[in-house]
Amino acid sequence: MLLKKLLILNQNYSKSLPKHVAIIMDGNGRWANRRGEERIFGHQAGLRTIRRVVSFSLFYKFKILTLYAFSSENWKRPLLEIMVLMELFFFSLHSEVNNLNKKNICLKVIGDTTKFSSSLRKQIKIVEKLTVNNDGLILNIAANYGGKWDIVEAIKKIVKRVKNCYLSIDNITEYTVSKNLSTKHCIPIDLVIRTGGEFRLSNFCIWQIAYSELYFTNVLWPDFNRSVFEKAIFSFINRKRRFGSID
Fold first, then answer.
1. Is there a binding annotation on residue 39?
2. Under DSSP, is residue 110 helix (H, G, I), strand (E, B) or coil?
3. Which residues bind substrate (predicted)?
4. Active site residues
5. Architecture of the domain made up of 36-47+69-145
């Protein structure tokens, strides 16, 4: 709770808090293996961590929390693990909708959902519709998501508009691209946190994080707690964000 005390004592800290935090959740499988359990056990533990992180984000009034849940490359994993992940995703959507509304959370799923089962796609639409009017935290779940896929899809939309004479090539800007990405409803990502000890971005929001601050921790996702989260936030608020300029 040290961060809370600092925010009370120093308003500059409060002003410096990130508004949009994104997390690459990594380490579920290794966490389970170290305990002699199946990887599935780690994914179940990871769900509990998500609930904790959402609560933390609400407490500090972040505007957006984006969680990288399943990448477009994760289909290469064992079939059984993928099936369990999909079941966990479906169960979470079904069981958490009342809690999302209670906490005024708007849930959005970003990614190529066409590869999901019809029942999962239907459940995604139901939860998104039921929470669409919530104006508190926006919770993005990146599922079957890839940064390259996102950019390619944006290009397709822009090309179609140009072809139909709704847009001139000369008027295409960075803003045009941003507004055709799956995160078009979002402000820029301020802070990206990756757990699990890896130092890479794994095709996550590669357009959106051009000037995001990055924070890497060796902590595996199921062990990610308030203390670790606060260390990442401390790191962020003590950095100078120049965006290519100078002080």
1. yes
2. strand
3. 27-31, 39, 43, 71-73, 75, 77, 194, 200-202
4. 26, 74
5. 3-Layer(aba) Sandwich (3.40)
Cβ–Cβ under 8 Å, residues 97 and 127? yes
Question: What gap in Å lies between CA 150 and CA 144, rounded to an integer?
Answer: 11
In angstroms, the first-to-last Cα distance of the chain is 31
| Spatial contact of 25 and 69, defined as CB atoms under 8 Å apart | yes
Residue 77 annotated as binding site: yes
Domain ranges of the chain: 36-47+69-145, 146-220
69-123, pLDDT tens digit by residue? 999 999 999 988 999 899 999 999 989 999 999 999 999 999 999 999 999 999 9
pTM across the whole model:
0.92
What are the φ/ψ torsions at residue 212 (nearest 5 degrees)? -75, 155
Q: Say if residue 207 carries a ligand binding annotation.
A: no
pLDDT tens digits, 148-173 = 999 999 999 999 999 999 999 999 99
52 labelled ligand-binding: no
The residue to which tokens 């199921």 are assigned: 222
Return the axis-axis angle of helices 226-237 and 39-59, rounded to nearest 10°.
Answer: 50
Average pLDDT of the chain is 93
